[in-house]
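Justification of computing resources. Each target in the renewal requires a structure prediction run like the one illustrated here; the chain below, 78 residues long, is used simply to show the kind of job we budget for.
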Amino acid sequence: MRGAISFVVGAILGSLVGASLAILLAPMSGQDLRNEINDRARSITEEVEMAAKARRAELEKQLEQLRKPVKPTDIQVQ
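Resulting structure tokens:
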């Protein structure tokens, strides 16, 4: 029983010390961190959207080329 109580007390004290050190040594406040995460997420989303638009334009151009009628003179016989 004493071992269990000692473990619980040690876990609580360890948690308090760890939380205190995390708060004291954190590089920025919680609001600043949330703002930075939001900014990065927004920029990544914009980059993905731009890449998707560019790829879509490429695919539409290729589809347009494939839909063009083939002239008999364009066919090469081997």
